[in-house]
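Researcher: Next sequence.
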Amino acid sequence: MKRSLLALLLAAVLLLGTLPVLADGAPAPRVRRPTNSTQYLIDSDTRLLTEEELWNWDRESLSFMFNEIFARHGFTFKVGGKFYNHFNNLPWYHAIPKVDNQTAYGRTTRKEWDNYHTIKRVIEQMDAVGHTYRKKAGDNLLSWTDIAWEYASESLTGFTYVTIKANQSLPVYSAPGTSSWRGANGKATVSTNGYIYAAGWENGWLQIYYSLTSGANKGGIRVGYIQGSAIRGKLDFNTQLNFAHTPVTVLGTCSLTDDPLRSYSTVTTLQAGATVTYLSTVVNQHGTVWDYVETTVNGLTVRGYIPSGYISLPVDEIPEEIPDDIL
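Model: Next structure:
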């Protein structure tokens, strides 16, 4: 009995010790975990948020909070944009098809509008003082990246298990196209007898990841693309990829990998000052944030992941003021 009580007390101490704290030393509010199947970054639909609690988050998270208000009501985001990719990966999000976004505004509650103004005001204040855009290791801030992996059904956000007809061996390329780089000394293939996880289609190519069962990186995974026309049998998976395709500058020398989950094996090294194309951001099950980028190596297109913080991500603009007649 005494041991049980001691174990409970120790667990409580460890739990409290991991909570971020406010400036006055009080524990910061926990991120809401809804009791139903939906998962929101913060409960802006049920209570009024305060400026004080929002300052405990990084700047990027406030952009997600802001747009989450309208996503709950079916707001349709720009195809290929950060928020389109983020919310379309969440089980609770359902965009209103072929309907003007005025409908989403009309469904927004008074409480949510008040939170809209509060978040927008803090965003402006953060931009004025240069508040941290995305949380880095060691930062005492909350971030959407801390819980993003919980949204995913598998080990990388955006990927889900798919079933492909067995007994096939399919070539895997780094990017959609046979002229892109191919791992395993140009022989990378995936067996459909193993587990395969897919993110979506791009120009007839399916982005997947799978475990490596042989070679130097045995035990790791590889993220790549397989050609749809090479797949035999029916595949009931129709999600389309919509990446940002934004040119960005590399801020420091870093390794690019096709395995952001286990081995982190290096495909190539990016040099500071180089220009690459930013595609998207993923979070693995360990809570590590990776930016997905595209570059060229020896004339071949290469896509892979680099640790967060190594590229000059464009800061999200402050959303435009909603017309008064909508409020």
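Model: Residues 160-230 form a domain with the SH3 type barrels. fold (CATH 2.30.30). Residues 86 and 158 are 8 Å apart (CA to CA).
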